[in-house]
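Thread: Modeling a multi-component assembly for a lab meeting

Hi all, long-time lurker, first post. My supervisor asked me to bring a structural picture of a complex we are working on to next week's group meeting, and I have zero experience with this. I have the sequence lines for every component (1302 residues in total). Could someone generate the structure of the whole assembly? Inputs are pasted exactly as I received them:
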Amino acid sequence: MKSRFASLPLDVARRELLARAKPLDGSERLAVEEALDRVTAAAIFARTSVPHYCGAAMDGIAIRAADTAGASEADPITFERGDPAEVARPFSYIDTGNALPSWADAVVMIEKVYAGPARASSSGSEPVRTPSPELPDVVHVRTAAPAWQHVRMIGEDVVASDGIVPRGHRLRPFDVGALLAAGVTEVDVRPRPVVAILPTGDELIEPGEELRPGRIVEFNSRMIASFVRSWGGEAVRLDPARDDLATLGARIERARDDADVVCLIAGSSAGRRDFTVDALASVGRILAHGVDVVPGRPAIVAAFDEASHRARVALGIPGYPVSAVVICLELLAPLVAHLLGTSAPERPTLRAVVPHDLPSKRGNEELIRVQLGRVGDRLVAVPLGRGAGAITTVVRADGLVRVPATADGIAGGEAVDVELLRPIGEVLGTIIVIGSQDPCLAVLEDVLRAAHPQYKLATSWSGDTEALGALERGEAHVAAVTAPVSPDGDERELRVPRGARVVHVAVRSQGLIVPRGNPLGLETLSDLRGRRVHYVARRWQGGAPTTGDPDIGSAREALVHTAVAEAVRSGLADAGIGVAAAAAALGLDFVPLEIEDYDLVLREDFAASDGGKALLAALRSDGFRARLAVLGGYDDRSSGVEKALTPASAT
Amino acid sequence: MKSRFASLPLDVARRELLARAKPLDGSERLAVEEALDRVTAAAIFARTSVPHYCGAAMDGIAIRAADTAGASEADPITFERGDPAEVARPFSYIDTGNALPSWADAVVMIEKVYAGPARASSSGSEPVRTPSPELPDVVHVRTAAPAWQHVRMIGEDVVASDGIVPRGHRLRPFDVGALLAAGVTEVDVRPRPVVAILPTGDELIEPGEELRPGRIVEFNSRMIASFVRSWGGEAVRLDPARDDLATLGARIERARDDADVVCLIAGSSAGRRDFTVDALASVGRILAHGVDVVPGRPAIVAAFDEASHRARVALGIPGYPVSAVVICLELLAPLVAHLLGTSAPERPTLRAVVPHDLPSKRGNEELIRVQLGRVGDRLVAVPLGRGAGAITTVVRADGLVRVPATADGIAGGEAVDVELLRPIGEVLGTIIVIGSQDPCLAVLEDVLRAAHPQYKLATSWSGDTEALGALERGEAHVAAVTAPVSPDGDERELRVPRGARVVHVAVRSQGLIVPRGNPLGLETLSDLRGRRVHYVARRWQGGAPTTGDPDIGSAREALVHTAVAEAVRSGLADAGIGVAAAAAALGLDFVPLEIEDYDLVLREDFAASDGGKALLAALRSDGFRARLAVLGGYDDRSSGVEKALTPASAT
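Re: Modeling a multi-component assembly
Sure thing. I ran the full set together rather than chain by chain. Output:
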């Protein structure tokens, strides 16, 4: 349905939004040590010089440089402890950082100060040692010292009135140190921009409230509030507004007088989105209804009359959580930075290769979630699901690949910049696993991370053949398989890359996941046939019915064992194929049909790496066996045992 | 002086430290929305599936897929509003996100639902529009719908019992969203490691206390505390300990029972460092006295008997602030991460070219502070001062270049990884200025950043010739000069790179900076001669005395105008050469001697860039002129005017 307002390209929408919001006036005065991560409202200048006095840069003696003129190994010059009023050539002991006496202008380091006979050739002459109970009162110097030798001059680091940090600068720990060192004890920082977040919708319930079909947990406002706080803003979550145009308009009007930005969270339906835009239009001006970015398209950008309200802009944030994340990153983050008078945070990038074609619709900028893994000598970006509703794909993503609106995708093999969503160290510790899904992999990861928190598993599910192909092409570190494998492959065995190592995880039990009590009394696969059962299939070697089977009432397919179990638990299906652990996790019954080996195939280079060794150690640990026992349905007697591969035929 | 304990290479010291400190046991239970940036104590699994019901993925009508069998443009199928108990082919209107009625298993999007005559060929047939006051009760569908079309299935994103985030994971805003979506309202996070920070030394005073020679503001503990907080630890700053061995031992003993890590801040003298190590040795075991990293060498790593104390390790942090920063980054950060059971934060890196040889002493790893700037098509790393005392060099640095202990430096022209100390966006906005120093550049930067917070100036000071050389070689964007220039250069003019643009900043007044009241009655340069005056020289074309001048009582050189002024203010010098603004900043008197043009030379490519345009706009702004007037001593009549260069002679 066409909106009566125009949509805008992402960069234009951002420009319009920022042009209407001005950096906040005013400032807040804070003690420097409380100002970490705050943004300076003005350049800050040193109040005192650093150092603020002339001090020793070495442990030694303070002297007058002129008194050392002509000193040499052969002609040492003798100094007496005291000051110029008392002795001819005075010295005093001084430690690094101590103030130079007012009469002194140089330091001789203690290693070059001699006690005993003056001349080097004389026996018994030795450097003075400090600290020492008995420091001599007469010492000798054998080299002439230039004026200001080993002296830290006043203002050597910074001079009073010099700039320390500029305006619009986010204070880091060493800025705190430098400011305090330069006599600055209080700083003026920008006020935190206040962002009001107003969810809308009759269907919303609070976290922890009873879930009923059609009810949605109101988590978006908490997520957006967390974003705002992480950027240095102040988030005010408002109670959800009901679906009533007049009420919503009034709520927006109140929010714009109490905050610097108003964010409305619209629902995910087109009707709701129209409703939100109408409410915004009734109290402000719509700059964009729709932003040409995917996910995120249904965003709204609106402005308020600047003279009369505190907030000058409002954002309509889509209800689908991934769309909400994109709009937060692409519009709200730069807006908060702009209000703080600083530049927007940029995500670090890594260059990675996209293994397959990634088509994208022209006309919209698209942000594609990817997982990254360093396989062999290249970094590979494996795309995740692209649905706007799947918030966990953002959690699992290492970064985002941006496809410009002018492109119709990215060609396989192309290198792209990936904007990171987690620290680089974590990204480079990603172990990419592809293949047959099993709940025990989550447990394996947990055991791995307990010992080596720098590694994580990035999993995606496929058939064995596809998984081994990805391994061969360097798109994964590990393939999880149930079929027998060999380096050559034949009718009975799948081919693995040369040098790969096959390690047994466990023997697992596949069977029928059925409701508790097994109401249909299913005992074998043939019990499924000829009855109107709703059934969930999985790709499996065990000869179970597939989705096309005309003998089955209705069938659909799932990739993940727990998804099969969830279909049974929720009553959408009467039975499905899966492992015992998935039935146990959701409290269902299980009819075992067959056992099979569940194995990991590791690329040779990965198996030899630190990450590979850590993964194998986790697989062979007692902790992993103990956790398998808790999951249930596994035979762990050979867990961690490496399988000998059929020797490759000589070629 | 040799220590009785051995020093260790940095990586060995880190390994020893981490081997003795175990990740903290126990956990803290927090509401998910309060857990941003905290580290998970265990893997977190979904409590409910997402979605938790079958819902519409489109606005439209809910139907039974089987009822659409055979529907086509020519043979539409008609549905009636209601449920299967009331009508033969029931439908109900449904919006995205709404729960599917229990009898339905598919959604037809509203754009494919027709009212009026059933057949497409009939006039008056049109898609139903929502929202609408009058939704028809009879509609037609012209395409068969497969089961589950446009339905978001239960568990499509995540299934109850699936893992959401692993253990040892720092929670991000979208993790908060995903956890709440999956029914998780509370999470167990690692307790914050408590780091006790104990400064030592009789010379320490609190920020704001009266500064006397030899007194040092105790800022290191505040800086270290800020670091600890930024990594997710809890910092406890203890009152400084006096220089007394027994007291210090007792203070350490108390601290190790109240904290997970004890940090002692030693002074900068060798004597104090010995003292600190003795105190640590009296209550624990020294693992390393000295770590082979520069700055940072005097660090101490110690361990406590693990059975009886809360803290298992202690760090002796050097008193020189840059050494302290390095030990924080290299040892304390990984330690805090290890206690949290997560991996250490890594600094993003950028690859940059080192313009000149950077020698470094073999045997120590060295971290060299650099400023980065993209000049032309390459990123250049310009080294900053290497002193351990100059905390402002860390503030000014964009990053650190690491020279391994096995190398004796980095060759000029080599590309290196620079570990960033500020966000990449800020780094890439750096404008490198080299040449003649003037206080007005700080003001220019402030005016620039008020309009364009993404840019900052990185300044270093040199003579005009050296500055223009750096510009030519692509090591700077801008040269700040006082000499006349031309594209060719001759006896009177310095050569600028071809295409460079020369823009006038102001006419400035150079002269003698003298104490208030001008006690020596200096009026001209010749008044300096033949008297025992202490004098500070600057490289200047004006014919002032230099450091070697035999006619002057004593002379030294300073690069920065305010450093000249500080020498005069503190009584170290009777007079010095500088600009009027520097005298005014420190409240001194000024004897004008000569005026000179202060100009900026911009590389052609930089002048054409956004940053160059922004800099020129700042230079030409009224705001800049107003600020020049406040500084004093500038003639701004031609500020911002571009100077025509003598045409290059034809070659």
